[in-house]
Design goal:
mainly beta; single chain; 2% helix; five-stranded antiparallel beta sheet; four-stranded antiparallel beta sheet
Length: 322
């Protein structure tokens, strides 16, 4: 546990706590960022002190967690922003938008330098894999895109499933992709070929979130069917599946230091789970200081700080202490 001053604890609002054997898990609401002005669909952590947000409005905004009252516009893309990704070696911020475009922003000069077009529907996710020097994109057209860097050349595109392809996550040279049909696919990144797939969720219920727990060789998937599914990556078998929320699960974020992960949902709740079991430890809703509308995702800012963002136009900063 980090050293926390008495003044910091007084300024935080204790939302919930849970005793875990000889440990206590405590969740504090540290701050609510409420200057976005519109629904928030994406967030990207820049460093331990700042992050970007985007959504229904045209602007990408940078927020500072040290000076909590400050924010500044980075750029305007003229469209809804659905996802973001950083390419640190190039000082680029990438933004996926509603009509299939990917904006490439030069952060040093604060200006757009490229507009990539690889999808015909919403770009739901951008995932940078530095070891392979590639960018993965997923789209509302049901396709997966692979882009080479630094050229931003589309080198592979594959149809995944009818409806959409929303999420992708790599584990080494393996890429896991969620389909609009409820299936999870495993691709080899060296050859870009399909290795195996499993029907992890109800058919026609999109897989909306994926997370890897590397220490346990496990993949957790969330879906519009409101279930969490646990997959053993050694044989791609389903080892557990439970109804975890009331509506679609839009975010799963693992914290190796605390040995837990958090989920966010369209049902306006955040839940915290231990990695060794599909049993919620803590549930946070609007009545206990949470969001008023769909929670569209969440990111760990650092070991003890979690960011959540919502259709209610706010971003919340939570302190998690064990």
């Amino acid at each position: 546990m980090p050293i926390i001053s008495l003044i910091e604890l007084v300024n935080w609002n204790l939302i919930s706590f849970q005793r875990l054997n000889d440990l206590m898990l405590e969740v504090f609401l540290e701050h609510t960022f409420d200057g976005a002005g519109d629904s928030l669909y994406c967030l990207m952590v820049r460093d331990s002190n700042s992050f970007y947000s985007g959504g229904k409005g045209n602007y990408i905004v940078e927020w500072n967690t040290h000076n909590l009252g400050t924010c500044k516009a980075v750029t305007s893309i003229g469209s809804k922003a659905f996802c973001m990704e950083q390419i640190p070696p190039l000082s680029h911020l990438l933004i996926g938008q509603s009509s299939g475009g990917i904006h490439v922003i030069d952060l040093e000069n604060k200006k757009e330098i490229r507009l990539l077009q690889g999808h015909t529907g919403i770009v739901f996710q951008l995932h940078y894999i530095p070891e392979k020097q590639i960018l993965v994109s997923t789209g509302g057209d049901g396709c997966l895109g692979i882009w080479s860097l630094p050229e931003y050349k589309l080198i592979h595109q594959q149809f995944i499933a009818k409806g959409n392809c929303r999420v992708a996550k790599n584990f080494g040279s393996q890429l896991f992709v969620g389909g609009g049909n409820g299936a999870v696919y495993e691709f080899d990144l060296d050859e870009f070929h399909l290795k195996r797939s499993v029907q992890a969720h109800k058919d026609e219920f999109s897989v909306t979130s994926l997370e890897i727990i590397p220490e346990k060789n496990v993949l957790i998937s969330g879906s519009r069917d409101a279930h969490l599914t646990k997959l053993d990556l050694s044989d791609f078998s389903i080892t557990a599946k439970i109804p975890a929320h009331n509506f679609a699960i839009y975010g799963i974020a693992y914290n190796s230091e605390l040995d837990l992960y958090a989920t966010s949902s369209m049902d306006k709740t955040i839940k915290f789970w231990r990695t060794n079991e599909l049993k919620p430890l803590i549930r946070i809703d609007n009545k206990s200081g949470g969001h008023k509308s769909s929670i569209n995702g969440l990111y760990w800012l650092n070991t003890n700080s979690l960011l959540t963002y919502s259709d209610d136009r706010t971003i919340k900063l939570w302190k998690i202490l064990m």
